[in-house]
Amino acid sequence: MMSFEDFVEKLQYELEKAIGNVSVHSQSIRKNNGVELIGLSIITEGDPVSPTVYVNDYYNAYTSGVPIEKIASDIAEAYRINDGYRVDVDANKFSDASYVKSNVIYSLINREKNQELLKSTPHRDYLDLSLILKVIMRIGEDGSIASATIRNQHLDIWDMSEDELFELAEANTERLLPAKVMTMSGFMAEIQGGDFALNASCDPMFILTNSNRCNGASVILYRDLLKDLSSKLGTALYLIPASIHEFIAVRADMVDDETALHSMISQVNSEEVDDTEILSDTLYKYSVHNSFVKVL
Questions:
Q1: In this predicted model, which residue has the larger pLDDT, 45 or 237?
Q2: Which residues have C-beta within 8 Å of that of residue 259, sequence separation ≥ 6?
Q3: What is the phi/psi pair of residue 111, to 5°?
């Protein structure tokens, strides 16, 4: 069985052979939470967009018995079906200050796990988390979002300050990605193709995300969202960071043991959530009177 390094090199060769008329280059890419993945960029001469295929999961498939030729063939077929993984993104938008002003948003990430990123990125600390800025480049018909993270050097290009960008992001995020609040039972029904409704009398748990369910954990910062939900339910809320994409709100009047909630967060993060999508192991609590507080 090949080592990971040998697998990457061999997959490069097999992809070039399977796709044809492309060159494939490997690179290490730092993702959210400091996770480093190896990506293979598929480069076509004259094409400014080079799609990247992340290798790590494919290596797991290989070690489970899938032949590397089969892996390369599947990637090549997906490449052809999806028109070279091409996404309709105009890269020039990112250099257009007027476009940025209308499309800059904020996103919540784990502060401790992203120290290297935060050194080069405008951000604001919030409890044990941090807010970073992104520019939405495209929202697909399926709700998928293509975005670019703002770095410190971009501020000079646009001649804008951090304060100005965060002020714009505060308005844009809620406008472009409106909040979506679902009961847990309603969420499950929607997944199964049913209808959902906010039933405060029956449901102790609620999903808080945005309309696209992408980086939706930031909705907890939307104006009056938690206040309105807490007031409607007549109780404080425990807030569980399910991932960077959503929070789970739990009625505090139905919780007898905070320790169990802490344990659930740690267990789910370690066993269920992808490393790049973990937000925090912390349990939070909100009440109308005490605002948003961290639970130790």
A1: 237
A2: none
A3: -70, -50
pLDDT tens digits along 245-260:
999 999 999 998 888 8
Compute the average pLDDT of residues 220-236. Answer: 94
For residue 184, count other CB atoms closer than 10 A to its CB. Answer: 16
Assess whether 151 and 241 both reside in one domain: no
Q: Are residues 197 and 288 in the same domain?
A: yes
Q: Are residues 282 and 199 part of one domain?
A: yes
Greatest alpha-carbon pair distance for the chain in Å reads 64
The structure's pTM equals 0.84
Task: Identify the three-state secondary structure at position 212.
Answer: coil
The 10 Å CB-count burial string (b at 16+, else e) for 27-39 is eeeebbbeeebbb
Name the nearest CA neighbour of 166 among 130, 123, 210: 123
Binned at pLDDT 50, 70 and 90, residue 52 comes out as confident
